[in-house]
Write a structure and sequence with these properties.
Elements lengths: L2 H4 L4 H19 L5 H11 L2 H23 L5 H24 L2 H29 L22 H21 L2 H11 L4 H25 L5 H10 L3 H12 L4 H21 L1
Helix pairs in contact: 2-3, 2-4, 2-11, 3-4, 3-12, 4-9, 4-10, 4-11, 5-7, 5-9, 6-7, 6-8, 6-12, 7-8, 8-12
């Protein structure tokens, strides 16, 4: 019995899942947050709760490719600052999944994503108004520094807040990408630092989620069989993203990340 028969997929449904897997690869190496579209496709084609378990190994495959591509640009002080709060968020998200139904999960995550996008746009407009000679649009900055004093008390509070939200959203719907994208943008990361830091962050977090997802019955032999087929499509997506990121300047990069977050939030609210 093949995977399409096992999951009762039509040709068009499998093609949609393959495209979503390709988009995962692209998002991991180019526009972080764009994989919220993949999340929506998986939830539309497959049972909503099961889709989160099937998508997780696909995301991990994309994370591995992103780490191999941008490993030199990770900012580890930011990662160590985030991980404790993310752990709290993952634990809360696991408890939330025990009782929440699909509609509650989608609505909650959609509202959070749209709120984060709105706050980030507001913050960046304030920064631009305060300093008209702000960050250059050059696509060549390595972006390994933070631009808003996240080592300060207010910065630590912000890191914890985003960390808990990121852990919660990534556990309940694999939708932590946009939340952490908003944090890294608000912290002033340049393009490559953004991608390198998020690559290691999500590889570590997604791998740590596997036991929780398996314990909830979201990952099993049937889901892994489908994953084995879908991960093949992650590779060309990652290659395409690596090619595209060299041709996207900083301002366009930030706008694409925010736009992907808004689209993902709206999709979760409307599906």
């Amino acid at each position: 019995m093949d995977t399409m028969t096992l999951w009762h997929l039509t040709g068009w449904e499998f093609a949609a899942l393959a495209f979503a897997a390709l988009l995962v690869g692209f998002s991991k190496t180019a526009v972080s947050g764009a994989n919220t579209v993949s999340l929506a496709i998986f939830a539309a084609v497959l049972p909503a709760r099961a889709s989160t378990g099937i998508l997780l190994p696909v995301l991990i495959a994309g994370d591995v490719l992103a780490v191999l591509t941008y490993r030199r640009h990770a900012h580890w002080p930011t990662l160590w600052r985030l991980f404790p709060a993310v752990g709290v968020g993952v634990a809360v998200g696991t408890l939330f999944l025990v009782w929440a139904d699909d509609a509650v999960v989608r609505t909650s995550i959609g509202v959070i994503l749209l709120l984060m996008a709105g706050v980030t746009v507001w913050r960046r407009r304030q920064a631009e108004a305060a300093d008209a000679s702000g960050a250059s649009d050059s696509a060549d900055g390595d972006g390994d520094t933070e631009g808003d004093g996240t080592s300060s008390r207010s910065g630590r509070v912000k890191a914890r807040s985003y960390g808990v939200l990121g852990g919660f959203t990534t556990m309940v719907a694999n939708a932590g990408g946009p939340v952490m994208s908003m944090y890294l943008l608000s912290a002033g990361f340049r393009k490559l630092g953004f991608l390198g830091t998020s690559a290691f962050f999500f590889l570590i977090v997604n791998v740590s989620k596997v036991p929780f997802s398996a314990g909830l019955g979201l990952i099993d032999g049937r889901s892994l069989l489908l994953d084995a087929v879908l991960v093949v499509f992650v590779v060309p997506g990652a290659v395409l993203g690596r090619w595209a990121v060299k041709r996207i300047n900083q301002r366009l990069f930030e706008r694409l990340v925010i736009a992907a977050t808004v689209v993902g939030g709206l999709q979760l609210l409307l599906t």
